[in-house]
Design a protein that fits this description.
By secondary structure, the protein is mainly β. The protein contains 2 helices and 17 strands. A hairpin with a 2-residue loop joins strand 13 and strand 14.
């Protein structure tokens, strides 16, 4: 992959920086592994907007990704790498020895033709999926389950990774990218290595229209509105006073703790904000 800064033939292309990967498949996805997807307009079943700044965007299908990796003991070959419009990471199309095809999140360094495997007896190499009890301590992993058999939920985006720190009894301790240390059951599965397409964060969209292609509508700052439209509205350069950032409905927008899931507090060994004191 390479970062490409295009010629400034227009204002929108002047700041455009693209991530180019010649190894990606240029055709259509596998027809049996895609399904239709409802347009993300941010509205509920009554037609009311429940998520602002969403709408429009290009049509695309949802790629059915195998997050469970439960096809144990059967070798699979990476048939090709594909772009996925639904996530920042790329997909790898696996062709199993029995003829079945499945999409998985493409790990870093895994190329076309590589042999992958899942299960407790799989070798320790990038792209293979094993239970945490069978992975050596200190290994970098991704696509980690939170409950055995549920499918990967942690570290699925481009460039993401988790480190296996220790194992104590039936739990393994993982250090997430945020700095949080969390306990996960040792029967949960994880994939060796990091997620590919790590240069995704270095791209530059270039123009506002490119965000519209992605279904993101414009966002107006609350401070730029009138008081009737937003609690932060009506402030001018000559005065008006400062108050904490808040949403249009008056709830604090920055700094307020919103986590209410006390049931899983015992699974967090060290919180991500602990170092800030």
């Amino acid at each position: 992959m390479a970062l490409v800064k295009v010629k400034p033939t227009s204002p929108g292309r002047r700041s455009l920086v693209k991530v180019v990967n010649p190894a990606l498949h240029k055709g259509a996805p596998v027809a049996s592994l895609v399904e239709s997807q409802k347009r993300g307009s941010g509205r509920n079943n009554n037609g009311h907007i429940t998520a602002r700044h969403k709408g429009g965007g290009h049509k695309h299908h949802y790629r059915i990704v195998d997050f469970r990796r439960d096809k144990d003991g059967i070798a699979a070959k990476v048939e090709r790498l594909e772009y996925d419009p639904n996530r920042s990471s790329h997909l790898a199309l696996l062709l199993y020895a029995d003829g079945e095809r499945r999409y998985v999140v493409a790990p870093r360094g895994v190329a076309v033709g590589a042999q992958l495997q899942s299960g407790a007896d799989a070798p320790i190499k990038p792209g293979n999926t094993l239970p945490l009890r069978n992975i050596p301590v200190g290994t970098t992993i991704h696509c980690v389950e939170l409950q055995p058999g549920k499918g990967a939920q942690l570290a699925r985006s481009a460039g993401a990774a988790v480190q296996l720190l220790a194992r104590e009894g039936i739990y393994a301790q993982l250090r997430l990218r945020s700095g949080e240390i969390r306990k996960v059951h040792v029967d949960c599965r994880a994939t060796i290595g990091e997620v590919g397409n790590e240069e995704h964060s270095l791209r530059s969209i270039g123009k506002a229209g490119a965000n519209r292609w992605r279904g993101q509508r414009p966002t107006v700052r609350g401070i730029a509105m009138n008081p009737v439209d937003h609690p932060m509205g009506g402030r001018t350069n000559g005065g008006g006073g400062w108050h904490h950032p808040m949403s249009p409905w008056g709830t604090p927008a920055k700094g307020k703790k919103t986590r209410k899931n006390k049931r899983t507090n015992v699974m967090i060994v060290r919180r991500r904000h602990a170092a800030k004191g």
